[in-house]
Records
---
Amino acid sequence: MGFEPGFKHWRLEIDASNIANLHLDKQGPGPNVLSSEVLGELDVIIGAIGESLPRGLIIRSAKPSGFIAGADVKEIATLRDSEDALALIRRGQTIFDRLEGLACPTVAAIRGFCVGGGLELALACRYRVALDEPATRLGLPEVLLGIHPGFGGTMRLTRLIGAPAAMDLMLSGRTVDARTAKKLGIVDAAVPERHFESAIIAHALTPPPIKTPKYFLQLANAKLLRPWLARYLRAQVRKRVRANHYPAPYALIDLWERHGGDPAQTLLEEARSVARLATGPSARNLVRVFFLQERLKGLGRKQGPAQPKIHVIGAGVMGGDIAAWCALRGLHVTLQDRGAQYIAPALRRAHDLFSKRIRDRRLRRAAFDRLVPDHDGLGLPHADVVIEAIVEDVKIKQALYETIEPRLKADAILATNTSSIPLETLAAILKRPERLVGLHFFNPVAKMQLIEVIDAPATDPECLAKTAALVRALDRLPLPVKSSPGFLVNRVLMPYLMEAIVLWSEGIPPEVVDDVATEFGMPMGPLELADTVGIDICLSVGQILAGHFKSEVPGQLRNLVSQGHLGRKSGKGIYTYRKGKPVRRRARGKDSYDLDEICDRLMLRLINESVACLRERVVEDADLLDAGMIFGTGFAPFRGGPLHYVEDTGKEAIEGRLEALTTRFGPRFSPDPGWTTLTL
Ligand code: NAI
């Protein structure tokens, strides 16, 4: 081939049948991403291939982790302005256009993840052959970063599989496996390992006709039909996110509606739209959230045992679901309780979870085989990690520890799921308190991404590192938190929930209170959240924290509990529930309430408590606090976290608002002393 080697990220080999095999192996430890440098080299290589024209070009990844993970998010974060962004995107589009225009057959050989810019590159190839294995995932998840595909993906995917399926994929950001990708028409073949290589070569040497979507799917792109489908799509998106919080999906629909019929114009407008979005506040904060997530993942990177054996004690709401989740993630688990009758419901729930999450019958069976009911605690002496999730009672937990400690392996970790008892108290009766850590899962276990890893003064740092590695093995995010009342998430959340109850007791309809919070960007209103968590649990956590921090628990909460109105689980709490859903009345006269003040009362209590936690170093820094609240409670990701919100809004402005609220409503709003030393 007529050009010099010496590329940093790409390697080109021509085989005996004159097929060019182009391998991407981006320098450095991370996955393959399309940085400017990677794209620059690709540009030169495509030019050379265009001149020498081999029989075919196959694009492969040399990294076992996957094909290509997308554009380089670090570069998105450093874009100065929309002009800067536009130039970068147009350059990528031109390179992909040239790839598409090559006169020889081009094949993307897809193994592992192929997402974002990676899939856009594959879409610019004439054929895509995917390996049918669980690790292969394809999608265009750009909306999760506050943008949409920019390297021609909106136009090419729509052309390839029709607008309805393409828009669904791009608007949801979800990824699909190889077989689904084949069914949708994204890939030309989804084959097992033994046929993978021959399928790739066959597409390059004897290129089959190019597939197009069925006629009625093509019709959806017609000028007259686009506005109809666009209206439907907007209504669907509106159910999930608001345009002022997450403009990207709306921009994508606008783009397609206006320019979907004209590929050249779509490309130009696609680039303009992404350039605008990428430099706007929503994308900037979502990119920040992406890096916070990467940081939490990094905290769990230190290796523990590759396949730690887990023993869970307490098969209730939490312990049962924790054990099932461990088994789902491939770990061997023994599950102990006081009697077999307490374990049975947990096994039934595990069955439901596996049925929902594992399609293959044999793999489902295997997950079940990994979850062993163990009434006699036979698994205890073999376990690397013992997770204790019995009732929240110091005496009962300590009594259990006394009986189990002598039976633990020397290097076993004892992890407690306590939500409120200081670890120091529990460790007091242990001979080896350094082996005790907190592993605070949130409810429901299968949904909540964050797990707090609690550090007591005596805890061995190696135990903490291994516990964080276990959290990663469970595909969850570990947040290191100091042992202190309520740890981080519950402590910060509680004043916000309590203020919501106070507002409701003042006669403000629950729908108004909840709407104000969701308008701010919370995933669910605080009153519906209190009902969902359980009014009794809110009362118990609220009382524990009130005891520590000399705050008050609203009387209305006690009244609800004494009337048996425990929330969603009892069919009535603050809302009445029908078929598990709250009956929401249309809040009449909503505008007669001071909605800004309601919002301040809710959010500033949460923020003030965040500042207090930072002052006490409950977590190490402001970014970890923001990460905890985003992944632990769903705190408005497009705002980048509570402390980032302070930074964006201005520290003095928020302190001033807290002082004004203190004058009107009393000392629960007094700015925490941490404000004076807060640097963001
Ligand atoms: P639960 O009452 O549903 O389950 C507790 C289980 O422990 C019961 O099955 C009981 O039979 C068993 N048990 C009690 N004493 C035992 C012993 N000596 N040996 C073996 N098993 C014993 O309680 P839940 O809600 O699952 O809570 C468990 C722990 O998780 C508590 O420490 C709680 O604070 C914590 N937690 C609870 C959350 C929730 O939302 N329910 C959230 C996060 C943590």
---
Amino acid sequence: MANKEDIFKKVISHAKEYGYVFQSSEIYDGLSAVYDYAQNGAELKKNIREYWWRAMVQLNKNIVGIDAAIFMHPTTWKASGHVDAFNDPLIDNKDSKKRYRADVLVEDYTAKIEAKIEKEVKKAAKRFGDAFDKSQFLATNGRVVEYQKKINTILKRLGSSLEKEDLADVKALIEELGIVCPVSGSKNWTDVKQFNLMFGTKLGASADSAMDLYLRPETAQGIFVNFLNVQKTGRMKIPFGIAQTGKAFRNEIVARQFIFRMREFEQMEMQFFVKPGSQKEWYEAWKENRMKWHLSLGMGEENYRFHDHEKLAHYADAAADIEFRFPFGFKELEGIHSRTDFDLSAHEEHSGKKLQYFDHEENKNYVPYVVETSIGLDRMFLAVFSHSLKEEVLENNTTRTVLKLPAVLAPTKAAVLPLVKKDGLPEIAHQIVDDLKWDFNVTYDEKDAVGRRYRRQDAVGTPFCITVDHQTKEDNTVTIRHRDTMEQRRVPIAEVNELIAKEVDMKSWLGKM
Ligand code: ATP
């Protein structure tokens, strides 16, 4: 496949063509940054959610899951700081009339310098061969050190001006760096302004009694306001966690990256309540744990990295992102935040209710500290989907498009294919489907030559094809074909279930954590 842009286009068109993601309300020309999950997408999304939920809730004795409402009392968002501070700095280009996030323009600029560093590293690795020591090279190569210094200086200044809300300096930085609008190519920028990302709506029928509400911009607050209810009814002892998956809504300024940045999306969050003073330790432990979860899917260690935040959100005393190598470069996939006692204390203050924990060992009450892990389900979907899409040149010089989804996440685990549509083969194939369907999502396909059917299943990401042929009638065996290796083996029908189970079983995947 060619350049990054082409790869990303291919990802989007493949997602549509194979029933994964459609634009919302497509017949009305779509709705910007809103997407629908199609028949295969809904299954993949459900499997990712399940993979997360099992790792978080089922496998941890001290983590429980809840499902809070999207609507919350409006004071929630005053207390959380979202009414006053959930803003993005926006800037318009006067020539193209395009709107950008000012911080993203600057970060894209530094990403370009980073790409230069990567290029130097690649060149040097080639030159030095086995003797190449990457960390030494990064620390000593004059050009690379200069690049890195430049990046650090820019990001530091951006961070501090945003923190001080010095928007004039953010604009000055954009001008000094000579950043141009990617559409018009001009430097004709407006001032930088703050823009609140929450969607407002109303509760109640009559105009005068209606109450202004927000659609939740994060799921976390549903956990905080239920902290004491869960702690008491579940008799939870600190440290413990509350997990939740669900929709969140943000009126994103710029949303041009398919399901990477949506206006309606789903989060999978876990808030871990700890004793004050122990948050650093737990923060490090959760960083490590979450990275292990990602790596268990086998999508390559080199495709993940941590990015520690310079600029901390109003609630955090430490924060890092797990970044993934998307088709458009390394970008945030998950955030791990040490949120201190900010949220619980703020809710205490605004509600007038105590949100404290009585620690029997210490014999005292305190407001727990919180370490949060927060991942976008849709972003995770994009990570898995884009990484899995491959175009392979085969031995006979033809190409095949294959979606090498981790088998545990694949929407359909097996396709059962009668070699021909007669001689009783479809009946046997249907019988196999009926046996397997209690344990796995399976499908039946009898249309076209079997080679074409294999290709179709490759493209949709089905890990196994089970072919019923004339020999099946004689000895009750079928061929089972593996999507990734294309290897075919003859096995008794009675063994098929176990063979599939071995490769798609969550236990064997999550067990790698
Ligand atoms: P970004 O900097 O990309 O806007 P964020 O730092 O605002 O993200 P958080 O508030 O930390 O994101 O949200 C946690 C996670 O939720 C993110 O890591 C991301 O995976 C997901 N997420 C946030 N905003 C969106 C969105 N608009 N569309 C899809 N997923 C999102």
